[in-house]
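Help needed: design a sequence for this.
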């Protein structure tokens, strides 16, 4: 009979309890869905920088009465068209020097401005501080965007849920309404609003609200069609949950990513639309400032005083680019497969 070889005792190693727990522990911490979204968002450096920039702009706009160095509507015609100047610093472009008759002269001395008087971004043709007007103009543009986005959510979200949830004839009828609304140009709606109402913030917000909710409604409808066939929705319906409770407890939380991403793309569209209307003269009325009115005033003297247009154009560009890049970052954070 063949003898079975014996393994010596020194080959065996006692496994301690601590070593056993260490082997069974997870290599990465357990994260909830929102914590994982936050981790992915802040790992995107471009989206993080854009979020910081937009946060700074929002804070400055909210505290505009404190941050703005002057009243944006105060006119001092004797200080009209002064170039940018920052204290006594000799920074090219920000030292108060201006070209007059082929000579570079101190524009502040030429108008007899007292010592210590300076405007960081210069003044416009009425002597109003451009920096203060840009701060208040950004504030007004952001207000338009926020109001338009809220109306977009109030109309588009329930409209899309009802259309997707009911389906059938109800969905067909609601989609025909969307097609009619989307066929009307925004500019026509704005002009009609200005005939009925006075030109200003209210008419612009109503015009945007009447047409821009269509995209949100279509996206929510498409997502609702997919979600209502999921097992947890079928289980909720089997247990007798009402449609309202299913929408608030199950549909809206699972639609949060679509809602947030579409909102981030709605904000720059609303800001640009307001700026366009103000630029062509049918937006925010004088003397109130918006980025569109500042661009319109600046382009009239762009050849001789380019700084009056560059500053508001730069702020508008930063808002548009940062919001779109942040929207891309949020899309990748909520749905990592979309970046594949």
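Sure. Designed sequence:
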């Amino acid at each position: 009979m063949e003898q079975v070889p014996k393994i010596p005792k020194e080959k065996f190693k006692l496994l301690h309890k601590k070593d056993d727990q260490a082997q069974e522990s997870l290599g990465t911490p357990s994260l909830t869905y929102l914590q994982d979204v936050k981790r992915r968002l802040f790992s995107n450096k471009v989206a993080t920088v854009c979020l910081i920039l937009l946060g700074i702009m929002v804070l400055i706009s909210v505290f505009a009465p404190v941050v703005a160095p002057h009243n944006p509507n105060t006119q001092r015609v004797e200080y009209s068209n002064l170039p940018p100047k920052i204290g006594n610093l000799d920074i090219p472009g920000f030292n108060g020097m201006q070209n007059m008759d082929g000579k570079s002269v101190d524009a502040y001395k030429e108008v007899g401005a007292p010592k210590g008087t300076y405007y960081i971004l210069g003044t416009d043709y009425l002597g109003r501080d451009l920096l203060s007007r840009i701060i208040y103009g950004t504030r007004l543009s952001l207000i338009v965007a926020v109001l338009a986005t809220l109306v977009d959510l109030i109309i588009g979200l329930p409209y899309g849920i009802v259309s997707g949830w009911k389906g059938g004839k109800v969905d067909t009828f609601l989609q025909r309404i969307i097609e009619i609304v989307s066929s009307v140009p925004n500019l026509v709606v704005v002009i009609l609003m200005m005939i009925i109402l006075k030109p200003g913030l209210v008419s612009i917000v109503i015009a945007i609200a009447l047409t821009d909710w269509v995209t949100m409604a279509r996206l929510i409808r498409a997502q609702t069609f997919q979600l209502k066939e999921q097992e947890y929705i079928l289980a909720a319906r089997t247990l007798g949950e009402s449609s309202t409770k299913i929408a608030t407890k199950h549909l809206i939380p699972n639609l949060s990513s679509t809602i947030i991403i579409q909102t981030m793309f709605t904000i720059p569209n609303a800001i640009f639309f307001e700026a366009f209307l103000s630029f062509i003269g049918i937006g925010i009325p004088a003397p109130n400032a918006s980025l569109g009115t500042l661009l319109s005033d600046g382009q009239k003297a762009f050849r001789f005083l380019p700084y009056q247009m560059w500053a508001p154009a730069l702020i508008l560009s930063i808002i548009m680019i940062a919001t779109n890049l942040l929207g891309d970052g949020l899309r990748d954070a909520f749905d990592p497969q979309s970046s594949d």
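The radius of gyration is 29 Å.
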